[in-house]
């Protein structure tokens, strides 16, 4: 279902009082984790606008130091659930990294990231970037403009270090996708190489999101892929230039999800229903109007949430994005919280993430298409989502037109990638084999490098 930017979504219903809390909650006092990024907004809004409380939930939101700690504490039961990277529940379930059965009943947003390079790197890139008649860069900018910069520095004996937030983050896969589409090999994960640098022309490593600007300023990394507000923070500090937003790498890409253990969901089905309802309502509220987005900016700027300057957060949250200082461009879809069915946990979103894990060697062996489908269905739970959506309709807080009830769990095939290569979630191996750089068939990293 298409929706224009900041369309008023069932506004009267959203402002109406909740009819009743979800009945028979197994657990009503919860602690949920998050990382200080603007796309934690659904959790903050569900708390601040009373959506959790409407469902009978008393929720404490607790910032976590990094993504690993957040996942580990969810799996151990120290916290009840959390905002997660789209790849975390999948990786945990297949045993890559911290193992545990984690499910996703609701997605939190689509898009929301960008890739930023240091000022000196941008200066070296600019001669290779197409400019318009006014002398401004034509977007999207291909990593082909970065390739001669990497080659020159490599020839001079300099490592080209880049940062991303976590090995199974969408940021990692978007950065690698962009590099590979521009002819730069980002490296493979292999036995003994947990950093994914085998055969790479660049060295990609992990930096926690809030530390990205300081790490760039110190010269430890030359660029990074991260969510907001940490790209716009580099512009404000005058230390870096965002060169591409992730919506220009893969439009409507999966970003953050809400994750909790399978055991929690099975032991607390009514509580899980209540959580899902509250988070869907938060997404609806965030995309209902520009005024709501502006209110969300103020909420997110508070120290308990993101704790960044409101003006920096507003750059991406209210329909624009700043690249070079003063080069502010429209970006109505930079964050999608409900529009374009952003909250629906599509199997195809999970499958795309799994294809990138296989492409770069995090999944060491080839898997049949049926494995991708089964794994997606093990983790992503549209059945739980639909139950929550139907309950919201019964409560008078939404209408059937707000949801994609006809979905079979797969989005339509799309070629909305920077390289134009089509992705069909039902045919993951054909997609993997169509990508020019990366593992194919039953290849291992050594096979791919040799060939």
Relevant terms:
451 residues; alpha/beta; D-Maltodextrin-Binding Protein, domain 2; 5-stranded mixed sheet; 19 helices; disordered N terminus
As a percent range, the share of helical residues equals: 25-40%
Low-confidence stretches: 1-18
- Give the percentage of residues in beta strands: 15-25%
Give the terminus-to-terminus CA distance. Answer: 44 Å
Computed over alpha carbons, the radius of gyration is 21 Å
Give the number of domains: 2
CATH homologous superfamily designation of the largest domain: Periplasmic binding protein-like II
Secondary-structure-based class equals: alpha/beta
Rounded mean pLDDT score: 94
Shape verdict = globular
- The number of strands is 14
* CATH topology type of the largest domain: D-Maltodextrin-Binding Protein, domain 2
Largest beta sheet, briefly?
5 strands, mixed
- What is the CATH class designation of the largest domain? Alpha Beta
Quickly give the CATH architecture of the largest domain.
3-Layer(aba) Sandwich
**Spatial ordering of strands, largest sheet:** 2-1-3-12-4
Number of helices: 19
């Amino acid at each position: 279902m298409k929706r224009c930017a900041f369309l008023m979504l069932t506004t009267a219903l959203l402002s109406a009082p909740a009819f009743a809390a979800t009945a028979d909650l197994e657990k009503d006092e919860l602690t949920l984790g998050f990382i200080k990024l603007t796309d934690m907004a659904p959790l903050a809004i569900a708390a601040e606008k009373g959506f959790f409380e409407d469902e009978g939930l008393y929720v404490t939101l607790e910032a976590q130091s990094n993504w690993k700690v957040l996942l580990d504490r969810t799996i151990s039961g120290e916290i009840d659930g959390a905002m997660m990277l789209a790849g975390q529940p999948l990786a945990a379930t297949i045993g890559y990294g911290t193992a545990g059965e984690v499910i996703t009943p609701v997605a939190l947003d689509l898009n929301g990231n960008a890739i930023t390079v240091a000022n000196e790197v941008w200066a070296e890139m600019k001669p290779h970037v197409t400019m318009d008649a006014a002398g401004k860069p034509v977007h999207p900018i291909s990593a082909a403009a970065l390739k001669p910069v990497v080659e020159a520095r490599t020839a001079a004996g300099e490592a080209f270090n880049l940062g991303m937030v976590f090995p199974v983050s969408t940021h990692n896969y978007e950065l690698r996708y962009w590099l590979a589409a521009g002819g730069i090999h980002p490296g493979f994960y292999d036995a003994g190489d947990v950093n994914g640098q085998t055969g790479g022309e660049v060295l990609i490593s992990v930096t926690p999101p809030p530390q990205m600007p300081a790490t760039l300023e110190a010269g430890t990394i030359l660029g990074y892929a991260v969510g907001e507000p940490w790209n716009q923070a580099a512009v404000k500090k005058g230390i870096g230039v965002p060169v591409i937003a992730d919506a220009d790498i893969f439009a409507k890409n999966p970003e953050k999800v809400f994750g909790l253990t399978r055991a929690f969901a099975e032991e607390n089905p009514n509580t899980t229903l209540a959580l899902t309802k509250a988070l869907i309502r938060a997404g609806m509220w965030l995309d209902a109007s520009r005024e709501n987005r502006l209110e969300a900016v103020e909420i997110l700027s508070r120290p308990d949430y993101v704790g960044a300057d409101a003006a920096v957060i507003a750059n991406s949250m209210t329909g624009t994005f700043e690249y070079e200082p003063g080069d502010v461009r429209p970006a109505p879809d930079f964050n999608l919280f409900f529009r374009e069915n952003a909250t629906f946990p599509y199997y195809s979103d999970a499958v795309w993430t799994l294809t990138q894990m296989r492409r770069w060697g995090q999944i060491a062996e080839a898997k049949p298409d049926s494995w991708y489908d089964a794994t997606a269905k093990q983790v992503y739970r549209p059945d739980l989502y639909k139950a929550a959506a139907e309950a919201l309709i019964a409560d008078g807080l939404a209408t059937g037109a707000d949801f994609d009830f006809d979905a079979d769990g797969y989005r339509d095939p799309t070629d909305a990638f920077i390289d134009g290569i089509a992705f069909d979630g039902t045919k993951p191996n054909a997609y993997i084999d169509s990508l020019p750089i990366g593992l194919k068939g039953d290849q291992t990293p050594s096979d791919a490098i040799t060939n």
